[in-house]
Amino acid sequence: MFQPRDDIAGSLTYQMRPQTDSGSGGGETCSTYNLLKLTRNLFFHDPDPAYMDYYERGLVNHILGSRRDADTATEPLVTYFLPAHPGATRGFGNLGTCCGGTGLENHTKYQESIYFRSADGKALYVNLYIASTLRWGGFTVTQHTDFPREQKSTLTVTGRGWLEIKLRVPGWIRKGFAVKINGVAQDVRAVPGTYLSLKRVWSPGDRIEISMPFSLRIERALDDPAVQSLCYGPLVLPALNNSRTWRTFSFYKHLKLDGDLGAAVSPLGQPNFFSTHDHTLRPLYIGINDAHHIYFKRVEPTVVFGSVDSGVSNETVDDEGFSFLDRVWQAAPFTNYGRFVHQVRKVSGEWQARGRFTRHDREAVIIAAERAEDDLRP
Ligand SMILES: [Zn+2]
Question: How far is the CA of 272 from the centre of ligand 1 (A)?
């Protein structure tokens, strides 16, 4: 079902209307099925890793989350729509719709976009981190990983000869992407959203070990910066809650100089599960029909640094919808406390010049920043 372009927060509000059936609306699963097909074909024309970032995002969130985590020999147990409004649930079953048919295909073709070769046959693209075995030419490449339940992968090469292996460095990487070959750390420059090229003569048994730590970040709805999702590496982390009203989250008071959102949540026992003080965050790929909140509202009412509250309102936003604290923390990570205070002085100066802060507001904010050194130490 087509929505107006870039209409994200608006379409969620539409889904919340009482006359809208909670089982319909939101993303139809076959839309993502078809967009992944399109993405794969675009990649054949232009091997831009951005296509594979998109592919991974669709695959490990919507597609993986569209199959119920239960065994059955009689029903596909796949979703039709994936409603994304506050308190939405997924319905699994779905014989006889467009998404029921493509949904059967989805879960038989996880392997189809992991590896591609260049047209001249001299390079191998490793696009997705999925346990698999590739037999191609004189090479066999075996990938061992439990990604995204683990943040690493190992490729073992069998065969002998020169080959360029291009590893996709995902666009969500924030804490490095490290590569070892046969246990030896490689001096590589891994830029998120590019391919890292390993060109060498391979010998049977060569092992490539990749470490790609996930980190937490927020993503904002295009049409309302206060409507946000929490992401962890490639994963979307909905908050579990039955309420049909917006959940609200505040994060800035928890941040340290590194700006890492990990300071605002606690890991739970299972991979990719976290808790905030009042919600469980569970990856969307878990196929259970509990009510969840893929999007929440970010509420940051006053300018706070750690436990130091300036008493100044943070509710005024600039022309692009960003608050004072949004603008301060956009410059994170801060390598030292002086740089943090410098950023507060700079943004508060701009805020005062635009009439969003009084002179007194700006002074109170700077004094609070200068008092928060102990709180902000990572
Ligand atoms: Zn469909």
Answer: 28
Bridge partner list, 274: 267, 281
Question: What is the CA(79)–ligand 1 centre distance, in A?
Answer: 9
Beta strands in 3-69 (DSSP E): 27-28
Distance 30 CA to ligand 1 centre (A): 4
pTM above 0.85, yes or no: yes
Residue ranges in 200-282 assigned as alpha helix (H): none
Q: For residue 256, give every residue at least 6 positions away whose Cβ sits within 8 Å of its Cβ, in sequence order, or none.
A: 263, 376, 377, 378
| Euclidean distance between CA atoms 231 and 305, whole angstroms | 23
Q: What is the Å distance from ligand 1's center to 19 Cα?
A: 21
Q: How many CA atoms, within 13 angstroms, populate the side-chain half-sphere of residue 6?
A: 5
What separation in Å is there between the alpha carbon of 260 and the centre of ligand 1?
38
Tell me the per-residue pLDDT of 30-86, one tens digit each, with 9 for 90 and over.
999 999 999 999 999 999 999 999 999 999 999 999 999 999 988 889 999 888 999
Residue 368 burial (CB < 10 Å; 0-12/13-18/19+)? buried
The alpha carbon of 266 and the centre of ligand 1 are apart by a number of angstroms equal to 37
**Cα(40) to centroid(ligand 1), Å:** 19
- Ligand 1 centre to CA of 64 (Å) is 16
pLDDT digits (tens, 9 = 90+) for 306-353: 999 999 999 999 998 899 999 999 999 999 999 999 999 999 999 999
Longest Cα separation, the chain: 72
Q: Encoding tokens for residue 200?
A: 């060498």
Contacts of 106 by beta carbon, 8 Å cutoff, 6+ apart = 29, 33, 63, 66, 67, 78
Cis peptide before 86 (omega within 30 of 0): no
Residue 112 CA to ligand 1 centre (angstroms): 21
Q: Please give the distance, rounded to the nearest whole angstrom, from the Cα atom of residue 239 to the centre of ligand 1.
A: 26
Spell out the domain ranges in the chain.
300-378
